[in-house]
Amino acid sequence: MVGIAALACIAMTSCGNMGQVLGAMTNGTGVVNAITSVIGLDKVKQQNLIATWKYAGPGCAFTSENLLAKAGGEVAAVQIEEKLLPYYQQVGLSASNTYITFNEDGTFSSKIAGTPFNGKYTFDEATQKISLKGLLLSMNCYAKKEANGISILFEAKKLLTVLQTMSAMSGNKDLQTIGDLSKNYDGVRVGFDMKR
């Protein structure tokens, strides 16, 4: 899941086409999501996190309004998500094989492209950081409130590591083909939009 997002970030460097920019601005989602493209503007509460969340598509957010503005606003976020989608499809991500359940007792169970990952989690409402600790793997991600659910997002540079680990556990060769992330996107978090 991480490597796919990384490819989207790399691909974004070649997204200067005016047609793509206009398309992203007028496709409806760009206008609706413009205010919510920054992590932390509308926070997820602990009690709202407890549920089963299923994959609904690629997710992307910027860590500050300043970085969002520098990247070209919501247009940049929409372009990243559009670039991620074919890679997510190649790996075979779907609502039936990619989901996470957060339980009240601090445990979670999940699958990423069909590979199980279970353990304990902690959630910091102030930073929206979710720490996931499993038997063989630990990772941090961030929640972002969306109009129709939440996004589970990773630092762009960490996403590749997560994907490579999941790839080794599952034997999925598609995940192993994803290259390194661009260092120009330190302020971008990528991952999954999730719905109940």
Give the SSE layout.
Layout lengths: L1 H11 L5 H9 L2 H5 L12 H4 L2 E11 L2 H6 L3 H18 L7 E4 L4 E6 L2 E10 L4 E6 L3 E9 L2 E7 H15 L2 H4 L11 E8 L1
Antiparallel strand pairs: 1-2, 1-8, 2-3, 3-4, 4-5, 5-6, 6-7, 7-8
Keywords: Signal
Organism: Xylanibacter ruminicola (strain ATCC 19189 / DSM 19721 / CIP 105475 / JCM 8958 / 23)
InterPro entries: DUF4923
Question: How do you describe this structure in short?
Answer:
With 196 residues, the protein is of the alpha+beta class. Helices cover 37% and strands 31% of the residues.
Plain-language structure description:
About 35% of the residues lie in helices and about 30% in strands. It is of the alpha+beta class and about 200 residues long. It has one domain. It has an eight-stranded antiparallel beta barrel with strand order 1-2-3-4-5-6-7-8. Helix 1 (about 1-10) packs across helix 7 (about 155-170). The radius of gyration is 16 Å and the shape is globular.
